[in-house]
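Much of what follows relies on a compact textual record of a protein's fold. With that in mind, consider the following protein and its fold in token form.
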Amino acid sequence: MTVERHPLLDRFVRVWMQVSKKPVPNIYKIKKTDMPITQLERMIEIDPELSQAIFSTPVEDINDGQLQQHILDNSFWMEDEQKLLEHGYYNSAKTITDAKIRYEQEKMNKEIEASRKRQEAAAKERERKAKMSLGERMMSEPLTPAQIINNQMKYHGHVGNV
């Protein structure tokens, strides 16, 4: 009986050498429960696709039908991220995380651009008002009834034309 070479063996050996000083374990028998959590996290960080291929729960063993459907269709929701991590689908979860980061960055960039446009408009308005004469400025900003009454009391001592 001959054993076929695992297609990910070279990648696994290369990543294992980066995360551990111990001998490389059998790729067919390794489980994530056999590894220290820090070593597993480091392996996931270095190569999430490899980690997913080795440690993921087979789709038929997942008890969540909706998650099974999303995995088989390779179309995920943001709510799937934690479930994917729990079942070892690290690369798929990383895709969701990256999409969240991209969305937040785009949202922030849009807010920055809108703020910049508001600042430019305010600067143009200040510049326009600075070029106006006193009379033009007074005409562009009409007085409210309260301001009129206050000015009449201040300068005339009474309200009205008496």
The chain has eight helices and no strands. The mean pLDDT is 88.
